[in-house]
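REQUEST ID: PR-0412
SUBMITTED BY: lab tech R.K.
PRIORITY: routine
TASK: structure prediction, single protein chain
INPUT:
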Amino acid sequence: MAVRPVLVLPHPVLTARAAEVGLVDDAAGALALDLLETMAASPACVGLAAPQIGVGLRAFAVDVTGHRKARSCHGPFVLFDPVVVSAQSPEPAREGCMSVPDLTGDVARATRLVVAGLGADGRPLELELDAFEARAVLHELDHLDGLLFLDRVAGPHAVFPRKVYR
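STATUS: complete
OUTPUT:
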């Protein structure tokens, strides 16, 4: 288990569809720990997908604990082979990404979401999410399809240089 380097554009794994995990075995468990440890070691990170650490598998971690925009909060979790069960009430909001470190953009995403997959223990897991947690999950799910937030913005007018806060 380790903190892994986060890949940035134009790395090709970031734009490729990730493969299904299928069975959550020891290797998947190690991936889950790496995702959580890498996310925890990255300031202001609320989600991380396996392709961002160079692993082309359908897995991501999310933790919005303590985030000022979070309403629902399931604590830190990993989801393998996730699928959207339902998504409602899209709203635009600003997003950033560790794999696109110099830009942010306005992206419309569902504010109410139900997502299902396999948890880190290999058991089926279904989560009801809203607000910021729903946005974070949808952002990470896009990574599994080879999409970045830049693929979702309305156009160049909705992309901005990232502000640096000190």
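NOTES: The longest helix spans residues 26-40.
REVIEWED BY: pending
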